[in-house]
What we know:
Blueprint (H helix, E strand, L loop, with lengths): L1 H7 L3 H7 L4 H8 L8 H10 L5 H4 L12
Amino acid sequence: MKHQFYVRGEEISGWALAHGFSAAMVYSVLNGRCKARRGQAHRIAVALGLKETPEEAGAGTSTDAAGGV
């Protein structure tokens, strides 16, 4: 992912600022120091395309508690 920023000639800190995130937190997500399970780290991972949005993640699951019966 960091290579993609390099190829585009885009600074990670600039991307973070443009998307309203802390540059330090974006680096933490990109470097794997944060698991990005919830909160700002999760939102960063979704914005970077590293994780699905909650809507995409739940698109293939059944919401029926009885298992579709």
